[in-house]
Every structure is written in structure tokens, then in C-alpha cells.
Amino acid sequence: MGASVDPLVVGRVIGDVIDLFIPSVSMSVHYGSKHVNNGCDVKPSSAITPPRVAIAGHPDQLFTLVMTDPDAPSPSDPTQREWVHWIVTDIPGYSPDAQRGKEVVEYAGPVPAIGIHRYVFVLFMQKCRLEGRVQVQEPVQRSNFCTRAFAQAFDLGLPVATVYFNAHKEPKNSRTKRH
Fold this sequence. Notes:
With 179 residues, the protein is mostly beta strands. It is built from three helices and nine strands.
């Protein structure tokens, strides 16, 4: 029997975004009917609106979800690592949709300009309700966000679940029009 290799290690999510952790909560991410698996491809035109993020866990538990792009503006020169795309706090456990929480940073879909970018969803279990106790505010800028520093600032500890997908710039004729 061969040893399995963690796709989060192979994809450099562990290292670039988070530290090694033991997954303890089930989380599934869907853009429409597309289920996000580690390393799968998602077209940016399919990810314009927030995904449905289902979280297991006990209803008394609360979670924080962070979505970032560690490859901004380009994978070979990620000078804006990490670009924060979405933060939702106070998500109840056993939730069929993360949008039941408090959106701190409004969702921004992937817009990779150069190369293949990784888009990482990191789930943390909260020790208490953040709203009302801790002031979680939208960062002044989305670039140069740090998931580790955010987790430390709000005493979130290590992640309990993580999944990522890849996306690259679509040819102009295959993109849906945005207004």
C-alpha cells in the first residue's frame, strides 16, 4: 500500500496560506452543480456569484470562512499574496450555506490576469460569537491579506477544513458578460 500525498501539500496551500492541520469538520463547496475538489478547475465565469458552502459540525458551533488567492497578481510573482476574496464569520454549524453567517468582506469572484491561480477556502471553528465581542472589519485593502495573521488576531487557531480550486483567464469569447 503506497503512502497518500495530501493535495493541500502538493498544491502548496499548506505553506503558502496555512500551516499543517488535521481536518475535523466536513465542508463542501459548490458553484452551481460544480463540486469543488482540491486542485479542480473552475471557470471564472462560473464563479461570479458566491458559492454554496455547506458545513457539518454541531448547530451550537460557529465558524469563520476565508477565501483568498495566494497567486495575485501572478503565480510567478505573487507580490499581492494573499488577495482576500471573501470573509464570513459566525456561520452556524450544520449549515447548508455559509451565507447564513455575517459577511465581513463581500464576495469577489476570481479574476486571474496571468497564469493559473489557486483560490483557497479556509474554515476555522470559532471559540465564541465574533459579532458584538470582537470588531472584525473589512481590511483597508484586499491585497497582502494574511490568513494566518487573521486567524491569530481573532484567536481562531488552526483551520478545521480547507479546499482549493484552480482558475485561469478565460478567452474573451467564452466569458459571460458582466455589467
